[in-house]
Amino acid sequence: MALVYRPMMQLSGILVSLLGWVLSCLTTYLPQWKNLNLELNELEIWTMGLWQACVVQEEGGMQCKDFDSFLALPPELRISRILMFFSNGLGFLGLLLSGFGLDCLKIGERQQEQKKRLLLFGGLLFWISGITAIVPVSWVAHSTVQEFWDENIPDIVPRWDFGEALFVGWLAGFCLVLGGSLLNCTICSTEVHPSSVHYAVPEQQDQCQHVETETRP
Known about the structure:
Blueprint: H1 2-29, E1 34-37, E2 44-48, E3 52-57, E4 62-66, H2 75-100, H3 112-148, E5 161-162, H4 164-188, H5 194-215
Antiparallel strand pairs: 1-2, 1-5, 2-3, 3-4
Helix pairs in contact: 1-2, 1-3, 1-4, 2-3, 3-4
């Protein structure tokens, strides 16, 4: 059972982590971190991301303008840029380390201890990457909620709302943490030694032949 269970869980963990890393990179560059609907002009929807602000028109057109200065951004967007880059880098490094630690990879087949350490470090990097992806998304969501319910802002002033990128970022962080957990769980499972793989089938065949000889009249 361990011969099938351990590699399958490792493969599931690396695929879930890969999905989380792709979603994290997508979140970094999506301009829909915040959405703004203007009541005076319902044909336009304003969006804001980490790099640019865009206006989407009902006809299907979309115009974007990059931010002129990094220092002119709000604090949550400045820190979010750094954390998302940090998350993407750690996720990529985790993919490399955990990829070389998979049991299905023939490289280093007899160095099980080193492969176990690579899986451990890869899983920890996925955890950190997932947390650093969740933190900026949650921070921007928190500041958006505070601004939305701020009583000092007049009611006629449009309020920013959650954008689609926030939900993609939360999903990315969850996938990275889940993938890292699956990889670390395989470390605690029964180890697969190459000798047991090579001799498991011959031993079963010998037992079957021995039973057949005993049952013959």
